[in-house]
Amino acid sequence: MNIPFPQQNKQVQNILNELESFKINDMPWKSGKIFAYVYDAGEEAQELMRKAFGMYLSENALDPTVFPSLLKLETDIIGMATNLVNGDEKTVGNFTTGGTESIMLALKTARDFNRINKPSIKNPEVILPHTAHASFQKACHFLNIKPVITTVDKTTFLAIPEEIEKSINENTILMVASAPSYAHGVIDPIPEIGKIALKNNLLFHVDACVGGMYLPFLKKLGYDIPNFDFSVEGVTSLSMDFHKFGYAAKGASAILYKNSELRKHQLFVNSNWAGYTMINTTVLSTKSGGSMAACWATLNYLGTEGYLKNTRITMEATKKMIEGIKKIRGLEILGNPQMNLFAIASDELSVFRLSDLMREKGWFLQPQLSSSSSKENIHFSVNPSNTPHIEQLLLDLQETVDFMYQNPEEVDIKSILEILQNPQPDTLDKVAQILGLSNGAVPEKMETINALLNVLPVSVREYFLTEFMNQMYT
Ligand SMILES: *Cc1c(COP(=O)(O)O)cnc(C)c1O
């Protein structure tokens, strides 16, 4: 696409009005009826973050010797994170832009640590339970590491230590477990996996991206949470996101390591080009200090007291939701969720239709496709802003489920599958048209698309999603 470049200056107010107007079709996340994407600690916290972000907007974290303020913010944040996840004086880490970057760095560090310490490894492998976040497979893709995926328990959705141990070979550079997994909110048996790591002299990463800013507070509230962090022997690195249940502005996560000997392999240094000496601790080079300042501000604004309160109210709301949903005919909770994340499924009703019908009532529920470890389901992440709306949610769910039993309806994906059986040059266009996806439009009804994706083999799913996304950004 080629659009005319603006000729004249525009007034500040007009620009801001225009920016505001673009949001018209966005999900109204302040409604408290959305169970994904936005982690919000309330208007005062938002206002503070806007100011803090603005204060450090233009400072550049490329070079901490030029902006010692950013070094101070980063070491403060990492120190506080270390405290929450039971690190010690030797624990080190860095502030990153998100879980994906933290995980990418953990894998890069493991790969380069092993290049030095186990030079016989030519084709590095990482062992991933199938419930490990997709960003691990993305990191493998970027770093040319082979993901070795292990099956998880079909009812608890927990990683199986024996399966992990069986997958260890001379190319293994790292083992991974989640605390908890995003999909089902269950915490892998980390102490057991830690023992395997020690026994086999392997690095072990705990993905606490979504749990790192929640489980420590849940523990303080007296909930029975198994050890999942640096208190477990064998854990060598851990990722935790501040932009999830730390409620910080997006672009805020941490990667922590047991010691600096290991972290050293994360750094990239280059003094062999025509320009300035480049020393990068993370993936990005030039980066705003804004998200660091907003994160630092939020941690200090909420403090232990604020996080305990948010943890308490969201956990109480979660328990209420789970109890209520269990009483609704046809719906079930997958596994035994241990924090404010869970997934619901049904053997009788289409969860995709349920999600669409609930959307008509103003709720946004996140569908998850079936996979080799789980049937299709709907994911909930419960935020403080959701807590006043739980009774209404349960009423609307009950009403929608009743409606679905009274008005059964099957989506017709057969005709699409038939077209797909015999691919022609125009197959994709035809299918896109049936699905309402032409010209990259975002369809209102997702049921047909989800139902179709749900039955397609993974490679066909991914082919479609790539084509669709590739068209959307034009
Ligand atoms: C969100 C999440 C990630 C990825 O984090 P991003 O910030 O979206 O890049 C990784 N692991 C888990 C468990 C998560 O919940």
Summary of the model, kept short:
With 474 residues, this protein is of the alpha/beta class. It contains 16 helices and 13 strands.
In words, what does this structure look like?
The protein starts with 11 loop residues before the first helix and ends with a helix. It is α/β, with parallel strands linked by helices. It is 42% helix and 12% strand. The strands form 3 sheets. Strands 1-7-6-5-4-2-3 form a 7-stranded mixed β-sheet, with helices on both faces. The chain has a 4-stranded antiparallel β-sheet with strand order 10-11-13-12, with helices on one face. The protein is globular, with a radius of gyration of 23 Å. Helix 3 (68-84) packs parallel to helix 10, helix 10 (290-326) crosses helix 12 and helix 11 packs antiparallel against helix 15. Pyridoxal-5'-phosphate binds at residues 98-100, 133, 135, 178, 182, 207, 209-210, 241, 253.
Describe the structure using short key phrases.
single chain, 474 residues, alpha/beta, seven-stranded mixed beta sheet, four-stranded antiparallel beta sheet, 13 strands, 42% helix, globular, binds pyridoxal-5'-phosphate
User: What characterizes the major β-sheet?
Assistant: 7 strands, mixed
| Unreliable parts | none
**Total number of beta strands:** 13
List SSEs in N-to-C order.
Answer: HHHEHEHEHEHEHEEHEEHEEHEEHHHHH
Could you report the average pLDDT, rounded to the nearest whole number? 95
Q: Which percent range fits the helix content?
A: 40-55%
Radius of gyration: 23 Å
Structural class designation: alpha/beta
Widest sheet: strand order? 1-7-6-5-4-2-3
